[in-house]
Specification:
tRNA threonylcarbamoyladenosine dehydratase; two-stranded antiparallel ribbon; seven-stranded mixed β-sheet; 16% strand; 243 residues; 8 helices
Length: 243
C-alpha cells in the first residue's frame, strides 16, 4: 500500500477523498521552461499520480534566471531528464512518462491521443501552442494555457480567465485571434497578465522558425504563472470553485 504520509499537510487542507482524486489523475505538461517547470513540480507535489512531461530543450546559461531545472551544473542537460529526476525524488511512486523532443505542430495530435485528466500548455512558440490548444479543445480535453510572462514585473496583475476574456497581453491577443479562425471562440482557461509589456525588453531571435522574438524576464514572474496554472489544474481536479 502506498505511503501517503508525505501528503499529510495537503490531506489536512483538502481531505482524503480529494487526495484520492489527485492520485488517480493523469496530467500532461507541455513545455518545461520558466512556467512549465514550476507548474510540473507543483502538480507533482500536490500528489497527482501520473504525469507526462514534454520538452525537447537542453538547459542554456540564459535559462538560469527563471527556470527550475537550470543550474550552472546542469547546462547542456535535457530539461525533461532533470525534471523527471526531481519528480521521482519528490514522489518515488509517481507514474512518469517523458517526451524528450521539440514537438512539431503535427506531433501534437499523437501526443494528445491519451485521455489526460488535464493538459497544461506552457509553450511559448505560437504555432505549436495553437496546434496543442486547438487539438486538445476538439478532443474535449481540459486545458489551461499560460500566456506571456516576459516583459513584465508585477505578479499581482495575473488573472485566470477564458481566452475570450483576455485583455492587454499581446500573446493572448494573437492566440485569441488565430483560434477564432479555427472556429474556437471560448472554452479554454488561460493564465495571463493585465500588465503592459516593457517594450524595450523585446529582442528578436533566430534558429527557431516558430519563435521570432522574445521578451526579457525576471526570476519570479514565470514561476508565478506556472504556480497559477498548477492551481487551476488542482482545483478543477478536486472540484474546488475557481472564481
Amino acid at each position: 500500500m502506498s505511503d501517503l504520509s508525505w501528503l499529510s499537510r495537503t490531506t489536512l487542507l483538502i481531505g482524503d477523498e480529494n487526495i484520492q482524486k489527485l492520485q488517480n489523475a493523469h496530467v500532461l505538461i507541455v513545455g518545461l521552461g520558466g512556467v512549465g517547470s514550476f507548474a510540473a513540480e507543483a502538480i507533482c507535489r500536490a500528489g497527482v499520480g501520473t504525469l507526462t512531461i514534454a520538452d525537447g530543450d537542453e538547459v542554456e546559461a540564459s535559462n538560469r534566471n527563471r527556470q527550475l531545472p537550470a543550474l550552472a551544473t546542469t547546462q547542456g542537460q535535457y530539461k525533461v531528464d532533470i525534471m523527471a529526476e526531481r519528480m521521482k525524488q519528490i514522489n518515488p511512486e509517481v507514474q512518469l512518462f517523458t517526451q524528450k523532443q521539440f514537438l512539431q505542430p503535427d506531433q501534437m495530435v499523437s501526443l494528445l491521443n491519451s485521455n489526460y485528466d488535464y493538459v497544461v500548455d506552457a509553450i511559448d512558440s505560437l504555432t505549436p501552442k495553437l496546434m496543442l490548444l486547438s487539438t486538445a479543445y476538439k478532443q474535449g480535453q481540459r486545458i489551461v494555457s499560460s500566456m506571456g510572462a516576459g516583459g513584465k514585473l508585477d505578479p499581482t496583475q495575473l488573472r485566470v480567465a477564458d481566452i475570450a476574456d483576455t485583455r492587454i497581453c499581446r500573446l493572448a491577443s494573437d492566440v485569441r485571434k488565430r483560434l477564432r479562425r479555427l472556429g474556437i471562440h471560448s472554452g479554454i482557461k488561460t493564465v495571463y497578465s493585465r500588465e503592459k509589456h516593457v517594450d524595450q525588453a523585446l529582442m528578436y531571435t533566430d534558429g527557431n522558425r516558430f519563435k521570432k522574438s522574445a521578451y526579457g524576464t525576471i526570476s519570479y514572474l514565470p514561476a508565478v504563472f506556472g504556480m497559477t496554472c498548477a492551481s487551476v489544474v488542482i482545483r478543477d481536479l478536486i472540484g474546488w470553485p475557481i472564481e
